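Data availability (excerpt). The following record was deposited with the supplementary files.
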Amino acid sequence: MNLNEINSSSDLKNLTTDELIELAEEIRTEVISTVSKSGGHLASNLGVVELTLALHHLYDCPNDRIVWDVAHQSYVHKLLTGRRDRFSTLRQYGGISGFTKRTESDADAFGAGHASTSISAALGLAQARDLLKEDRHVIAVIGDGALTGGLSFEGLNNAGAQKKDLLVILNDNSMSISRNVGAMSKYLTNILTDQSYNKLRADVWRFLGRLKRAEKIRSTVAHFETQLKGLLVPGIYFEKLGFRYFGPINGHDLPLLIKTLGQIKELPGPRLLHVITQKGKGYEPAEKDATKFHGISGFNKVTGKSAKSGKLPSYTAVFGRKMIDLAKKEPKLIAITAAMAPGTGLSEFASEFPDRFHDVGIAEQHAVCFAAGMAAGGARPVCAIYSTFLQRAYDQIIHDVALQKLPVIFCIDRAGLVGEDGPTHHGTFDVSYLRVVPNMTIASPSDGDDLERMMDYAVENRIGPVAIRYPRGAIPAALGENTRPFEWGRWDVLSGGTDLAIIATGSMVHPCIAVADRLRKEGVGVSLINARFIKPLDTEALTEIAERFDRVVVIEENSIHGGLGSAVLDYFDTIDYRGKILRLGIPDRFIQHGHRSLLLKEVGLDEDGIYRSINTIIKSKRSLLRVFQMKRNGKRPQEGTPAIVREKESVTSAAEKRKDEE
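Predicted structure:
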């Protein structure tokens, strides 16, 4: 049987071990071929081929629920559950997701994208199963990296206490959590998972219960078993949390995986199977550099070399270089990240300043509180975290940083739409959730110069928490001679006009420059403002805009609710602004995966989309003037002449509404 004939777990039930091993190699070839074109998480998926096959061979998915932590390693699972014919669309616009997604397949028991959620979610599924009296197994697959997150320990603690039938598989591929993967460990695991042994253990346990001083004898026997395990395997921690621990075993030994999983499948209570795997298994370039092939864009599958990127530097690269420059001048500067040193551009900093770099693992809450402690102690911490992951530390941002007005600098990478990783990774909420926090400053650079000057000022001045948000990808050319000298808290007027004011921030400034040029050629005088700071607002600039323009457009790559546009509306309400405001941003829905340019087009934030939206208020104004002119000349407007209406996403002030009601 080949991969094209596999559509569900049931198709694997009758395959021999040799056939499964052959299938594993075919799967590896398919994954490498597809990811070389689409990009994605390669090394982690190559590392779980045998484990995924063993799970689907023994369990009945989707009736049995398999929960993949982060779910970036679910490609093999997708191939085995009816998505083989669509696998070439992986991470492409309109194609299948790079993570598990409940709306994509019944086989995806729980959606994911962020780490450390699987154990809690699986426990919830087990609780629901028992409540509804269903017959199904629940399995959580979690990597050792995700086990650094606090949520995973909360899940383990609760699962051990509840004693639900639940299997957790720890996929260990890098941490030194295991001490022994050898003959003795394998021998001991065979004993501990053997059905005869477990039956004998249960019989002895019941027999001991009939004896006098039963509890003391049982305690002695249990202590002996625990001590034996503690000497030979690293399972004592999990045993103390209430799990029966098995392993570690070789996660690429398919016969051993099938045997072990089969033996512990029907054991009651919470169990943890520890498997050792190799990231990138079966593909030499990925085996040699698992970090590079963890998440990669397209590459040559023969040589393993990545496709050439553009010549323009990225915001991430500019941030990384600037951190090194600042550290040379400021001895108190500290860099903190949460398992994202390469992704946030801090790898070189870590090499040059190892004593001033801290990767805390997948633990954003700890990272922020850790930074707060450093700031309270007089250091200058810079916390570099993706926008989508900073959400996880919201309480610490409010309670530990902002409330105490501590000068922690948040450098927020991947703000806005990130592309192929999709809705779990889009950074479209950070302005909204940070803007409501007192003492917080939010800055949004439009180019590399802005980013560097914002970092300079934030490091040199202890002004409380500062968030600097910037998108994924290349930086456009600098704004050049039109940019006035940088002033903290002030906006930058890039061009003057009398008909329309466009307020753009961050990544939206450059497409708006092109839009403004198009409008000027059509005779529309556009004043374009680079809103470098979202909080606090440049109220002096806003007051002047309100006095000069009856049409204002606010454009941002953040949720339409709670972002810069909302802040402008709030301020205009206080000064009883009577003009029309058009807000453009991310609509109130989750945006799917696809190339960033396609997603910007979908939500109307590309150049053409912005141009069309702005034209609606220009045309409505011209239509209104035409109606007034016809009335003044004693003519009745023809049927179908558009009346002035509130454009989509535009809002009048509350004061105007009240006056209309009166």
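Summary of structural features: The two ends are 77 Å apart (CA to CA).
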